[in-house]
Known about the structure:
Blueprint: E1 5-14, E2 17-27, E3 32-36, H1 43-50, E4 58-63, E5 66-67, H2 73-76, E6 79-82, H3 94-104, H4 109-122, H5 138-150, E7 156-160, H6 168-183, E8 187-191, H7 195-201, E9 204-209, E10 212-218, E11 223-224, H8 239-247
Parallel strand pairs: 3-8, 3-9, 6-7, 7-8
Antiparallel strand pairs: 1-2, 1-4, 4-5, 9-10, 10-11
Amino acid sequence: MTNGVSSDRLTKVYGDKHALSDLTFQVSSGCVYGMIGPNGAGKTTALSILAGLTRPTSGTATILGMDVRAQHRQLVGKIGFCSPQFGLFDYLKGREILIGCGLMHGLSARESEMRVNDLLELLHLEEAADHFVYEYSQGMRQKLGLACALIHAPGVLLLDEPFVGLDSTAVYRLVHTLRRVAGNGGIVILTSHDLALVERVCDRVGILHEGRLKQEIDVSSRVGGLSGDSVKTQQPYGLESLLWEVVGKPEMKELSWI
Protein backbone atom coordinates (compact mmCIF):
# COMPACT_ATOMS: atom_id res chain seq x y z
CA MET A 1 0.00 0.00 0.00
CA THR A 2 1.85 3.08 -1.22
CA ASN A 3 -0.57 5.45 0.48
CA GLY A 4 -1.36 3.43 3.58
CA VAL A 5 -0.02 1.34 6.45
CA SER A 6 0.28 -2.42 6.26
CA SER A 7 1.83 -5.23 8.24
CA ASP A 8 2.47 -8.77 7.04
CA ARG A 9 2.78 -11.51 9.67
CA LEU A 10 4.55 -9.28 12.19
CA THR A 11 5.85 -11.35 15.07
CA LYS A 12 7.78 -10.30 18.16
CA VAL A 13 9.16 -12.81 20.63
CA TYR A 14 10.71 -12.01 24.01
CA GLY A 15 12.29 -15.19 25.34
CA ASP A 16 9.47 -17.72 25.29
CA LYS A 17 6.70 -15.10 25.13
CA HIS A 18 5.06 -14.09 21.86
CA ALA A 19 4.17 -10.42 22.26
CA LEU A 20 2.90 -10.44 18.66
CA SER A 21 2.03 -13.39 16.44
CA ASP A 22 1.50 -13.05 12.68
CA LEU A 23 -0.10 -9.60 12.87
CA THR A 24 -1.47 -8.75 9.43
CA PHE A 25 -3.64 -5.73 8.70
CA GLN A 26 -4.00 -2.76 6.36
CA VAL A 27 -5.08 0.83 6.97
CA SER A 28 -5.86 3.13 4.05
CA SER A 29 -5.54 6.90 3.91
CA GLY A 30 -8.35 8.81 5.56
CA CYS A 31 -8.89 6.20 8.27
CA VAL A 32 -8.70 6.28 12.05
CA TYR A 33 -7.88 2.72 13.14
CA GLY A 34 -8.19 1.65 16.76
CA MET A 35 -6.55 -1.28 18.50
CA ILE A 36 -8.25 -2.60 21.63
CA GLY A 37 -7.62 -5.56 23.89
CA PRO A 38 -6.47 -6.48 27.40
CA ASN A 39 -3.13 -5.42 28.82
CA GLY A 40 -0.41 -7.53 27.21
CA ALA A 41 -2.39 -8.07 24.01
CA GLY A 42 0.43 -6.63 21.88
CA LYS A 43 -0.97 -3.18 21.09
CA THR A 44 2.01 -1.12 22.27
CA THR A 45 4.44 -3.59 20.71
CA ALA A 46 2.66 -3.23 17.36
CA LEU A 47 2.86 0.56 17.43
CA SER A 48 6.50 0.63 18.52
CA ILE A 49 7.40 -1.68 15.63
CA LEU A 50 5.52 0.53 13.16
CA ALA A 51 7.34 3.55 14.58
CA GLY A 52 10.70 1.85 13.99
CA LEU A 53 11.53 1.76 17.71
CA THR A 54 11.30 -2.02 18.09
CA ARG A 55 12.54 -4.59 15.63
CA PRO A 56 10.19 -7.48 14.87
CA THR A 57 11.40 -11.03 15.22
CA SER A 58 9.86 -11.75 11.82
CA GLY A 59 7.42 -10.24 9.37
CA THR A 60 7.39 -6.89 7.61
CA ALA A 61 5.56 -3.58 7.66
CA THR A 62 5.29 -0.67 5.26
CA ILE A 63 4.15 2.91 5.76
CA LEU A 64 3.36 5.10 2.76
CA GLY A 65 5.19 2.64 0.54
CA MET A 66 8.37 2.63 2.65
CA ASP A 67 9.67 -0.37 4.55
CA VAL A 68 9.60 0.12 8.30
CA ARG A 69 13.04 -0.17 9.84
CA ALA A 70 15.12 1.55 12.47
CA GLN A 71 16.75 4.90 11.62
CA HIS A 72 14.79 5.33 8.39
CA ARG A 73 15.18 9.12 8.20
CA GLN A 74 12.71 9.69 5.39
CA LEU A 75 10.06 7.65 7.16
CA VAL A 76 10.62 9.33 10.53
CA GLY A 77 9.52 12.63 9.00
CA LYS A 78 6.23 11.06 7.91
CA ILE A 79 5.31 9.61 11.33
CA GLY A 80 4.09 11.16 14.55
CA PHE A 81 4.43 8.86 17.57
CA CYS A 82 3.29 9.25 21.16
CA SER A 83 3.31 6.68 23.96
CA PRO A 84 3.47 6.91 27.76
CA GLN A 85 5.97 4.05 27.53
CA PHE A 86 8.55 6.44 26.08
CA GLY A 87 9.28 9.35 28.39
CA LEU A 88 10.11 13.00 27.78
CA PHE A 89 13.24 14.90 28.81
CA ASP A 90 12.44 16.05 32.36
CA TYR A 91 15.29 18.58 32.44
CA LEU A 92 13.94 20.60 29.52
CA LYS A 93 11.00 22.99 29.41
CA GLY A 94 7.88 22.16 27.43
CA ARG A 95 8.39 24.93 24.90
CA GLU A 96 12.04 23.93 24.40
CA ILE A 97 11.07 20.34 23.63
CA LEU A 98 8.42 21.39 21.12
CA ILE A 99 10.70 23.88 19.35
CA GLY A 100 13.41 21.23 19.21
CA CYS A 101 11.00 18.74 17.65
CA GLY A 102 9.98 21.26 15.03
CA LEU A 103 13.56 22.09 14.12
CA MET A 104 14.58 18.42 13.97
CA HIS A 105 11.77 17.84 11.49
CA GLY A 106 13.09 20.59 9.24
CA LEU A 107 10.74 23.42 10.14
CA SER A 108 12.13 26.93 10.09
CA ALA A 109 12.52 28.69 13.43
CA ARG A 110 9.59 30.97 12.57
CA GLU A 111 7.30 28.13 11.46
CA SER A 112 8.29 26.04 14.47
CA GLU A 113 7.48 28.86 16.87
CA MET A 114 4.12 29.48 15.22
CA ARG A 115 3.13 25.82 15.41
CA VAL A 116 4.34 25.57 19.01
CA ASN A 117 2.08 28.45 20.00
CA ASP A 118 -0.86 26.89 18.15
CA LEU A 119 -0.34 23.53 19.87
CA LEU A 120 0.11 25.06 23.30
CA GLU A 121 -3.20 26.87 22.84
CA LEU A 122 -4.96 23.77 21.44
CA LEU A 123 -3.89 21.64 24.40
CA HIS A 124 -4.12 24.41 26.99
CA LEU A 125 -0.44 24.25 27.92
CA GLU A 126 0.38 27.96 27.60
CA GLU A 127 0.94 28.51 31.34
CA ALA A 128 3.13 25.40 31.64
CA ALA A 129 5.16 25.98 28.48
CA ASP A 130 8.10 27.57 30.29
CA HIS A 131 8.15 25.13 33.20
CA PHE A 132 10.45 22.11 33.37
CA VAL A 133 8.77 18.85 32.38
CA TYR A 134 9.52 17.28 35.77
CA GLU A 135 6.95 19.73 37.16
CA TYR A 136 4.24 18.46 34.82
CA SER A 137 1.33 16.28 35.87
CA GLN A 138 0.59 13.06 33.98
CA GLY A 139 -2.03 14.83 31.88
CA MET A 140 0.31 17.68 31.02
CA ARG A 141 3.02 15.24 29.96
CA GLN A 142 0.48 13.47 27.78
CA LYS A 143 -0.50 16.73 26.12
CA LEU A 144 3.14 17.61 25.48
CA GLY A 145 3.80 14.20 23.95
CA LEU A 146 0.81 14.62 21.65
CA ALA A 147 2.04 18.07 20.64
CA CYS A 148 5.43 16.58 19.74
CA ALA A 149 3.69 14.00 17.55
CA LEU A 150 1.63 16.65 15.76
CA ILE A 151 4.07 19.51 15.24
CA HIS A 152 5.43 18.39 11.86
CA ALA A 153 1.94 17.56 10.47
CA PRO A 154 2.82 13.92 9.76
CA GLY A 155 0.85 11.80 7.32
CA VAL A 156 0.64 8.96 9.85
CA LEU A 157 -0.05 9.27 13.58
CA LEU A 158 0.75 6.34 15.88
CA LEU A 159 -0.77 7.07 19.28
CA ASP A 160 -0.56 4.72 22.25
CA GLU A 161 -3.30 5.49 24.80
CA PRO A 162 -3.61 9.13 23.69
CA PHE A 163 -6.59 9.92 25.96
CA VAL A 164 -5.02 8.88 29.28
CA GLY A 165 -4.89 11.73 31.77
CA LEU A 166 -6.63 14.24 29.51
CA ASP A 167 -9.42 16.48 30.77
CA SER A 168 -12.73 16.58 28.89
CA THR A 169 -11.81 19.73 26.94
CA ALA A 170 -8.52 18.22 25.76
CA VAL A 171 -10.29 14.99 24.76
CA TYR A 172 -12.85 16.95 22.74
CA ARG A 173 -10.14 18.92 20.95
CA LEU A 174 -8.00 15.84 20.33
CA VAL A 175 -10.91 13.87 18.86
CA HIS A 176 -11.68 16.79 16.54
CA THR A 177 -8.01 17.05 15.53
CA LEU A 178 -7.69 13.33 14.79
CA ARG A 179 -10.82 13.39 12.65
CA ARG A 180 -9.40 16.41 10.81
CA VAL A 181 -6.12 14.55 10.15
CA ALA A 182 -8.06 11.63 8.67
CA GLY A 183 -10.35 13.98 6.75
CA ASN A 184 -7.30 15.49 5.07
CA GLY A 185 -6.13 12.06 3.90
CA GLY A 186 -3.90 11.17 6.85
CA ILE A 187 -3.88 7.95 8.85
CA VAL A 188 -4.31 7.60 12.60
CA ILE A 189 -3.62 4.33 14.41
CA LEU A 190 -4.34 4.43 18.13
CA THR A 191 -4.73 2.14 21.11
CA SER A 192 -7.09 2.78 23.97
CA HIS A 193 -8.97 1.11 26.80
CA ASP A 194 -11.67 3.77 26.59
CA LEU A 195 -14.09 1.93 24.32
CA ALA A 196 -16.58 4.79 24.18
CA LEU A 197 -13.92 7.11 22.78
CA VAL A 198 -12.68 4.42 20.38
CA GLU A 199 -16.19 4.00 19.05
CA ARG A 200 -16.54 7.78 18.78
CA VAL A 201 -13.35 8.53 16.86
CA CYS A 202 -12.43 5.37 14.91
CA ASP A 203 -13.56 4.13 11.50
CA ARG A 204 -12.24 0.60 12.04
CA VAL A 205 -11.21 -1.32 15.15
CA GLY A 206 -9.03 -4.39 15.59
CA ILE A 207 -9.32 -6.58 18.68
CA LEU A 208 -5.96 -8.02 19.79
CA HIS A 209 -5.63 -10.88 22.25
CA GLU A 210 -2.48 -12.75 23.23
CA GLY A 211 -0.56 -11.11 20.40
CA ARG A 212 -3.03 -12.01 17.67
CA LEU A 213 -5.53 -9.96 15.70
CA LYS A 214 -8.74 -11.78 16.51
CA GLN A 215 -11.35 -9.59 14.86
CA GLU A 216 -11.75 -6.39 12.89
CA ILE A 217 -14.87 -4.24 13.03
CA ASP A 218 -16.04 -1.55 10.64
CA VAL A 219 -17.23 1.03 13.16
CA SER A 220 -18.35 3.52 10.53
CA SER A 221 -20.95 1.11 9.14
CA ARG A 222 -21.87 -0.23 12.61
CA VAL A 223 -21.50 -3.87 11.59
CA GLY A 224 -19.01 -6.64 12.18
CA GLY A 225 -16.16 -7.16 9.74
CA LEU A 226 -14.50 -10.04 7.97
CA SER A 227 -11.07 -10.61 9.45
CA GLY A 228 -9.10 -12.89 11.73
CA ASP A 229 -11.31 -15.41 13.49
CA SER A 230 -14.52 -13.44 12.98
CA VAL A 231 -17.62 -13.92 10.88
CA LYS A 232 -19.57 -10.95 9.54
CA THR A 233 -22.65 -10.46 11.68
CA GLN A 234 -24.49 -7.58 9.96
CA GLN A 235 -25.87 -6.64 13.37
CA PRO A 236 -25.44 -3.53 15.51
CA TYR A 237 -22.87 -4.05 18.22
CA GLY A 238 -21.20 -2.58 21.24
CA LEU A 239 -17.42 -2.72 21.37
CA GLU A 240 -17.42 -3.88 24.98
CA SER A 241 -19.71 -6.82 24.24
CA LEU A 242 -17.62 -7.81 21.22
CA LEU A 243 -14.41 -7.52 23.22
CA TRP A 244 -15.67 -9.98 25.86
CA GLU A 245 -16.92 -12.33 23.16
CA VAL A 246 -13.41 -12.44 21.69
CA VAL A 247 -11.19 -12.50 24.78
CA GLY A 248 -13.60 -14.07 27.26
CA LYS A 249 -15.62 -12.31 29.93
CA PRO A 250 -13.59 -11.59 33.09
CA GLU A 251 -14.33 -13.75 36.09
CA MET A 252 -15.52 -11.83 39.11
CA LYS A 253 -14.18 -12.37 42.60
CA GLU A 254 -16.73 -11.32 45.17
CA LEU A 255 -15.24 -9.46 48.13
CA SER A 256 -16.95 -10.68 51.27
CA TRP A 257 -16.08 -7.48 53.07
CA ILE A 258 -17.88 -5.20 50.59
